[in-house]
Amino acid sequence: MIEFIKGTIDYVNPEYIVIDHQGIGYQIHTPNPFSYRKDNQKEITIYTYQHVREDIIALYGFSSREEKALFMKLLNVTGIGPKGALAILASGDPSQVIEAIENENDTFLVKFPGVGKKTARQIILDLKGKLGDVAALYAPDLFNQEELEQKQTDNHALNEAVEALKVLGYAEREIKKVIPSLQNESLSTDQYVKKALQKLLK
């Protein structure tokens, strides 16, 4: 098992990042790949989880051991796979997810791609009261932000963010509902992804 990889960001796309460690490029799936663009050219540490199936071996990466721990707890829930767990963590605020679980707020949980009423109840059943080791280590960093002013324009970073949302499993019709309120803003792709997720989860 690879605990972490330390290196520099070589490539970022909507689905994964490539981190260069001593000349070897590791493809790592992360909750929001574009959040790592700000780390370009500097050495970073990615905490990894290796997922093995009959037809695939994949690395999933996280910015902290606590985020990785929450990912692994979500994987233990029946009906949640790596892609679904990544989509939940991509909200940018794991504390919001933890609060929803502890308060049995399945209405919030079903807003994530692939999470229906039954799966939301299963998440609560399996994880409520069992997240104390990671809950206190998160601080809200997304959902308290003010709404962006609605404008109309084309934006390359926004287009990249749309692709990232599709990779996370959001339907095109869901994405189209939030795009008008994001257009014509001067944001990075990472910021567009976070802001779109904020709107999708409301």
UniProtKB/TrEMBL annotation:
Gene Ontology CC: one annotated term: cytoplasm
Q: Where is this region: Domain III?
A: 153-202
Q: How does it assemble?
A: Homotetramer. Forms an RuvA(8)-RuvB(12)-Holliday junction (HJ) complex. HJ DNA is sandwiched between 2 RuvA tetramers; dsDNA enters through RuvA and exits via RuvB. An RuvB hexamer assembles on each DNA strand where it exits the tetramer. Each RuvB hexamer is contacted by two RuvA subunits (via domain III) on 2 adjacent RuvB subunits; this complex drives branch migration. In the full resolvosome a probable DNA-RuvA(4)-RuvB(12)-RuvC(2) complex forms which resolves the HJ.
Q: Which SMART domains match?
A: HhH1
InterPro entries to which the protein is assigned, alphabetical: DNA_helicase_Holl-junc_RuvA_I (IPR013849), Hlx-hairpin-Hlx_DNA-bd_motif (IPR003583), NA-bd_OB-fold (IPR012340), RuvA (IPR000085), RuvA_2-like (IPR010994), RuvA_C (IPR011114), RuvA_C_sf (IPR036267)
* Domain comment as written in the entry: Has three domains with a flexible linker between the domains II and III and assumes an 'L' shape. Domain III is highly mobile and contacts RuvB.
* GO terms for MF: ATP binding; four-way junction DNA binding; four-way junction helicase activity
What does this chain do? The RuvA-RuvB-RuvC complex processes Holliday junction (HJ) DNA during genetic recombination and DNA repair, while the RuvA-RuvB complex plays an important role in the rescue of blocked DNA replication forks via replication fork reversal (RFR). RuvA specifically binds to HJ cruciform DNA, conferring on it an open structure. The RuvB hexamer acts as an ATP-dependent pump, pulling dsDNA into and through the RuvAB complex. HJ branch migration allows RuvC to scan DNA until it finds its consensus sequence, where it cleaves and resolves the cruciform DNA.
- Domain (Helix-hairpin-helix DNA-binding motif class): give its ranges: 72-91, 107-126
The processes (GO biological process) annotated in the record are: DNA recombination; DNA repair
What keywords does the record list, in alphabetical order? ATP-binding, Cytoplasm, DNA damage, DNA recombination, DNA repair, DNA-binding, Helicase, Hydrolase, Nucleotide-binding
Homology family: Belongs to the RuvA family.
Where found?
Cytoplasm
Protein name, UniProt field: Holliday junction branch migration complex subunit RuvA
